[in-house]
Amino acid sequence: MKVLDDVRVINDKKEYNEQGIHKGMVGTILESEIRSGSFYVNFIDSNMIEDDIGLPIDIEDLELVKDGGATDAMILDGIPKHNMDWWCKVENGYIMNLKGERKNKVPYDYNS
Q1: Is 101 a member of any domain?
Q2: Does residue 28 belong to any structural domain of this protein?
Q3: Is residue 104 assigned to a domain?
Q4: How far apart are CA 77 and CA 91, in angstroms?
Q5: pLDDT digits (tens, 9 = 90+) for 34-90
């Protein structure tokens, strides 16, 4: 998962539900960096009263629906100060930066 990918919410949480986001909804990751274990995801739904809803969604509450095709160069362009140390994508269960370093030690355990 990375910026421009379409993702599905796989867990309901009170803080998501209060903003109109529910399990099964699909949105698009809009920001390159991962902050506090979350991607900023934008949701557009014709059934919503608002035009769209954007909020941070925890990585463990998302699954990839469609690869948006963002290259590492595109990701780097969206990271503050173009810092390659920022955590910015999830590959094979690991939170990674553009140097290929892994943040978590156990795949899919994003807090390890």
Answers
A1: no
A2: yes
A3: no
A4: 19
A5: 999 999 999 986 665 667 889 999 999 999 999 999 999 999 999 989 999 999 999
Q: Length of the chain in residues, anyone?
A: 112
Please give the sequence-ordered ranges of beta strands (E in DSSP) within the chain, or none if there are none: 6-9, 26-29, 38-43, 53-58, 62-66, 89-91, 94-96
pTM: 0.92
- Supply the range of the domain harboring residue 33: 6-96
Structure tokens at 55: 């909020």
Number of structural domains the chain divides into: 1
Cα separations in angstroms, 110 against 6, 38, 53, 68, 107: 20, 10, 25, 22, 7
- Determine phi and psi for 60, rounding to 5 degrees: -70, -10
Structure tokens at 25: 């909804």
Instruction: With beta carbons less than 8 A apart as the criterion, state whether 21 and 44 touch.
Output: no
